[in-house]
Specification:
154 residues; mainly beta; two-stranded antiparallel ribbon
Amino acid sequence: AAGKYSTTTGASSAQTCINCGAGTYSSTLGADSVYFCIQCEQGKYGRRTGSTACENCAAGKYSGALGATSASQCQACEPGKYLPTAGNDAEVDCINCPSGTYSGIYSATAVANCQSCPAGKTSQEGSVEVAACMSECPPGFTGPALQCTPCPSG
């Protein structure tokens, strides 16, 4: 059966089949070696022995580990970021909340988890708290928030 292998020549019973270990899988029927058991890829994990496939890390999480055996090995995207897809393998896959928003949530899965700054305020990409929201420049001034300069005459 897939997910198993047997090193016994001429075996007459399925009892000689050995499960591939946790963190590995095999889709090969009639495998005759542990080498047919393949490590789960980055972004995936295999918690059971005898698996025919590995499971994806959930949206909002990623894992750079090969052969991971538990969902707990999938790491959360930090606050100020979100990740809408499953099976990601690196922290760089986490997307910054857009400017003008912030999020204090770990493992956020959608841009909707990024809350808007209060009216008249903005923030940098990836902001993690409302305190990062700064006043926009008032009429007659220009520049980034908190670095406003008067508009030139004319």
